[in-house]
């Protein structure tokens, strides 16, 4: 019983971690797109 509980907790933490990293990746991607768009707008003005 204790092994099943421990395995369930480890699995829950692993899945939560994956979702967190996925969210961070999306945030970084959005920030990169924002920088790219700003640079393109500045280049168009020149």
UniProtKB/TrEMBL annotation:
It holds the Pfam family Entericidin. InterPro entries: Entericidin. GO terms for biological process: response to toxic substance. Keywords: Cell membrane, Lipoprotein, Membrane, Palmitate, Signal. GO terms for cellular component: membrane. Belongs to the EcnA/EcnB lipoprotein family. This is Entericidin B membrane lipoprotein. It comes from Acinetobacter bouvetii.
């Amino acid at each position: 019983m204790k092994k099943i509980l421990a395995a369930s907790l480890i699995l829950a933490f692993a899945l939560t971690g994956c979702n967190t990293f996925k969210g961070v990746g999306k945030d970084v991607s959005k920030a990169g797109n924002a920088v790219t768009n700003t640079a393109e707008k500045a280049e168009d003005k020149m």
